[in-house]
């Protein structure tokens, strides 16, 4: 995606250059509808290789523009009220290979190549490493919350929870072994 493809309408009323709602839903134009959500869109961050959901952040037009210009996942912190680039403090950066919007164009997905030991700011108590995904809890029974450790294994498999395993760079998952490797051309190759 190129910078000139990004359109960030600042007003909630359509202008003559804004696409019609039917064109947004059925067309191919990338036109995130920031005004619909008060200038802030939810953004799912997904590992481009394993397709695992890593985190959820919020994006303003400025955060999206910075993501496109740098190739690094950038968000708006609702608690600190400022832009932040994932990994600027932890070193666990997310290189963005593709940006998608949903059918209503009021939610985004960043498909990323993680560079670091995890996406979550919390750490696994056993390994001390950042958790690979922020989604490490699941509800497996009506009265029980099931935690998944840093390897993705449930601590409740003996109680009927489904055992899972994260796909890490360089590893294979049996169900994915026959699939071709995912190859991405990243927006920009940031220098570190």
TrEMBL record:
| Organism of this sequence | Salinispira pacifica
Instruction: State the InterPro entries in the record.
Output: PRib_AMP_CycHydrolase_dom, PRib_AMP_CycHydrolase_sf
Key words of the record? Amino-acid biosynthesis, Cytoplasm, Histidine biosynthesis, Hydrolase
Q: Give residue ranges for domain Phosphoribosyl-AMP cyclohydrolase.
A: 55-136
Q: Where is the composition biased (Polar residues)?
A: 145-154
Q: Which family does it belong to?
A: In the N-terminal section; belongs to the PRA-CH family.
Region Disordered, residue ranges: 1-36, 145-192
MF-aspect GO terms? phosphoribosyl-AMP cyclohydrolase activity; phosphoribosyl-ATP diphosphatase activity
Highest rank taxon of the organism: Bacteria
Q: In which pathway does it act?
A: Amino-acid biosynthesis; L-histidine biosynthesis; L-histidine from 5-phospho-alpha-D-ribose 1-diphosphate: step 3/9; Amino-acid biosynthesis; L-histidine biosynthesis; L-histidine from 5-phospho-alpha-D-ribose 1-diphosphate: step 2/9
The record's EC number reads 3.5.4.19, 3.6.1.31
Give yes or no: UniProt keyword rRNA processing. no
Name the GO terms of the biological process aspect.
L-histidine biosynthetic process
This protein is called what?
Answer: Histidine biosynthesis bifunctional protein HisIE
